[in-house]
Amino acid sequence: MSERRERRSFSKEFKVQTVQLILDGQRPLKAVARELNIDPSSLREWKRKYLEDQSNAFPGKGHLKPKDAEIHKLKRELVDLRAENAILKKALAIFSKSSK
After folding, report:
1. Which one, of 37, 38, 88, lies nearest residue 46 by Cα?
2. How confident is the model over 54-74, as pLDDT tens digits?
């Protein structure tokens, strides 16, 4: 049977420092991956995310980037407004029946 490796998590600071080592040209990606015992594909992914949006690259577990958080908030608000609208329609139907 193959041995299962425990999934490790790394802080935002660690990821940023590691990516900066690679970007500064101090050491090649594969060498950094070997030294830190991290899969090179993970480092490539960290680098890609960092280059896309440096300030929001690694929001952390359970946290969203500001743009994604705003979208989530607006979707939640839309669901609430649709529910309120449905309730008001039902109330209008009830009151218009009773006034006849």
Report:
1. 38
2. 777 776 666 667 777 788 889
Pick out the chain residues at pLDDT < 70.
1-5, 59-64, 98-100
**Token pair of 89 as six digits:** 């329609």
pTM attached to this predicted model: 0.53
DSSP per-residue codes, the chain: -PPPPPPP---HHHHHHHHHHHHTTSS-HHHHHHHHT--HHHHHHHHHHHHH-GGGS---TT---HHHHHHHHHHHHHHHHHHHHHHHHHHHHHHHHHT-
- Report the distance separating Cα 58 and Cα 65, nearest Å: 8
In whole angstroms, what is the distance from residue 13 CA to residue 56 CA?
12
